[in-house]
Amino acid sequence: MSEPARLSRTQEYLLAVAAAVVTANAYYIHPIIGDVAAHFGVSEARIGLVPALNQLALAVGILLLLPLGDRYSNRRLTVLFAIGQTASLAIMTLAPDFVTFTAGSTLLGFCTIAPYLLPAYASKRVAPERLGQVTALLTAGVIFGILLARVGAGWIAEQFGWRTVYWIATGLMVAITLALPRLMESGERTSGNTRYWPLVFSVFRLAGQHREVLLSGTIQALNFAQFIGLWLGLALYLTAPEMGYGTDVVGYLAAIAAVSIFSTPRLGRWSDMVGPRKARVVFAGIQFLGIALFWPLGGSVWTLLIPLVIVNLVGPAVDVTGRMTFLSLEPDLRTRLTTVYIVIMFVGGGLGSLLGTAVYDAFGWPGVCIMLTLSSAVLTLLCSVARKLGR
């Protein structure tokens, strides 16, 4: 079969928009987590189960479902999983109690496969020298989705209540599900004769053959855990009586992520030039300096802007460079290698969700800051080790 046609620039940007919409669903909870906890009458530690189970279900879903991207059309699978996300959001929107809401969120995580099929789909349709740039563009779309979710959810919940957030989210998913079949082209080459379970188990074999994916996944697990733990802890901190702000202020602070939309594609191009492993060490070191400032500058919303800008400038680039270490390998392996990477990443996200809320419940904002600083120090060390091993 002939190679699939290259993506046009318009298609690349529209895929980034699609990545934004399908990614946003997991992050609406961040600024409104206090409101949801109060509505259902649960503690700060217990409400952490909602994002934690979402992230862990996503890891399971990716392990069981994402390998299908090397067997079946990425286009068909993306549409199917988008339908699953839409149904899950409807359950959350109408949930009468905490258990139903948590179940809907967990199912949402299991079905959130589309954001991770899209980079593999695009990687087969771009020139090798533009892989970093296009991967960064899709990552910027993911960042925009997270930004839209957190800023929009905070403001909408403050004005109209948290359920309105999920009504809007469901409507957006209906629209994107209808658009995806027209945006994504068919005709890709897949391993259609491979049985399902051997395909899933082949993920473990490939992980053993490409051990750098395990290291890159571990680095991103720490990176993602920091991101989740930071924003859940920060939302609880800012809306607590100690600070006394509303969810809209949490959303306004989340707008700082807009800097990533502009910085990440540029950092991706720089990573193409110097190599992903060297670039990742630089980004991790800068991020460590930013995270170390959260405690001394945490007494004011205005001073918090400084570490938030630093972390948002380089944090997503750690992910981009991690993906670059394996997305240049054989096309037929990329979806399954992405599976390894993303599963490890979302196990980290699940732990970050639990720790971010539990540590805040037990030790307050200073405890969250100490946890994040220690995690970032380990992450930076692992990036240095990965660079030496990759030479």
TrEMBL record:
Q: Which InterPro entries match?
A: MFS, MFS_dom, MFS_trans_sf
Which regions span the lipid bilayer? Answer: 12-33, 45-65, 77-95, 101-122, 134-153, 165-184, 213-237, 249-267, 279-298, 304-326, 338-359, 365-386
The Major facilitator superfamily (MFS) profile domain extends over 11-388
- PROSITE patterns in the record: MFS
Q: Which Pfam families match?
A: MFS_1
UniProt keyword Magnesium present = no
The record's keywords, sorted A to Z, are: Membrane, Transmembrane, Transmembrane helix
Highest taxon of source: Bacteria
Name of protein: MFS transporter
Give the organism the record lists.
Answer: Qipengyuania xiapuensis
Source lineage: Bacteria, Pseudomonadati, Pseudomonadota, Alphaproteobacteria, Sphingomonadales
